[in-house]
Specification:
6 strands; about 140 residues
Length: about 140
């Protein structure tokens, strides 16, 4: 990892107030080291870590992604209630879900317009709205 990537990783983990363990540093390097945002599944991150020569179990990847989400460094996006994607961009924005490749990408937030939401039940408030637009190639 270059000095610049190491700096990004250290700052990212510090922003989430997470201790920089070997596994966290390695996985954070794959997620944010190059400065680009990513959409990953636990399985795809596990495979990337394996290919990079990092020895991390799949359970550790799941636990680390959960810790990153709880620290506010990532967001979990669930598709169909069965598949979770993890997004390094934590700003509110919609997503495209590509059915053929089972991949997630950002959709342009400036083109999304939600004019009204149903009223939350008594004793509840809307915490967030996740928009996933499913796409099928022609």
């Amino acid at each position: 990892m270059s000095d610049q990537e190491q700096k990004r990783v250290s700052e990212w983990l510090a922003r989430g107030e997470l201790r920089p363990t070997r596994q966290r540093v390695a996985l954070a390097g794959l997620l944010v080291g190059d400065g680009n945002n990513r959409h990953v599944t636990a399985e795809s991150l596990f495979e990337s870590s394996r290919l990079s020569g990092e020895r991390v179990s799949l359970a550790t990847v799941y636990n680390t992604l959960k810790a990153f989400c709880e620290a506010g460094l990532m967001r979990e996006i669930t598709v169909d209630g069965t598949k979770s994607y993890f997004d390094t961009c934590t700003k509110d924005h919609p997503h495209f879900y590509w059915e053929d490749s089972q991949s997630l990408s950002d959709a342009p937030a400036s083109e999304l317009e939600i004019s009204r939401l149903p009223q939350a039940p008594e004793g509840a408030e809307v915490a967030s709205v996740d928009v996933v637009i499913r796409l099928r190639r022609l």
